[in-house]
Automatic annotation (TrEMBL):
Keywords: Membrane, Transmembrane, Transmembrane helix. It comes from Chloebia gouldiae. It comes from the Eukaryota. It is a multi-pass membrane protein. This is FLOWR protein.
Length: 174
């Protein structure tokens, strides 16, 4: 147990509690994390490749992509950044974010370099990082209901509408 975990015991349990509150299963949480790591690798390599040019917008987009890679590694896989002192604190704070906040953050980070320099390298390099944001966004939507419960709710709504209609017709007849 690190000294930070001793200082902030709630921070160590925060990722599991936040994920449990949002209803994410363990495998979906791992899928999001793996997508974040792969997205970070994709951004890093594409960003480095994008910097090998004389066009200043491509260089700026490449630097932004490498920054995206660093943030993705820092938030999703802090063990990759174990020699950076503040990595665990940033990861703990990122784990306390809601899924829709992570989705907006990751998608926004991935869209910016594409808007800066629309090339195939920036599109392909940021695609997996954007997909990570989409995965978090889908988890924020929640579970889809099954067809039986949806049909039952629809039937109850229909019965209530019929009762209201019959009650208003009876009220007119009197």
């Amino acid at each position: 147990m690190s000294s930070q975990d001793e200082q902030f015991p709630a921070a160590a349990a925060a990722p599991e509690a936040a994920a449990a509150d949002e209803g994410m299963t363990w495998w979906y949480r791992w899928l999001c994390r793996i997508a974040g790591v792969i997205g970070g690798l994709s951004c890093a390599f594409s960003g480095l490749w994008n910097c090998v040019t004389i066009n200043p917008l491509n260089i700026a987009a490449g630097v932004w992509m490498m920054l995206n890679a660093f943030v993705l590694f820092l938030c999703e896989a802090p063990f990759c950044c174990q020699f950076i002192e503040f990595a665990n604190a940033v990861a703990a704070r990122a784990d306390r974010l809601r899924a829709w906040q992570k989705a907006a953050f990751y998608c926004g980070m991935a869209v910016f370099p594409v808007m800066l320099s629309l090339t195939l390298t920036t599109l392909l390099g940021n695609a997996i990082a954007f997909a990570t944001g989409v995965l978090y966004g889908l988890s924020a939507l929640g579970k889809k209901g099954d067809a039986i419960s949806y049909a039952r709710i629809h039937q109850q709504q229909k019965q209530m509408d019929e009762e209201k209609l019959t009650g208003s017709l009876e009220g007119q007849a009197l």
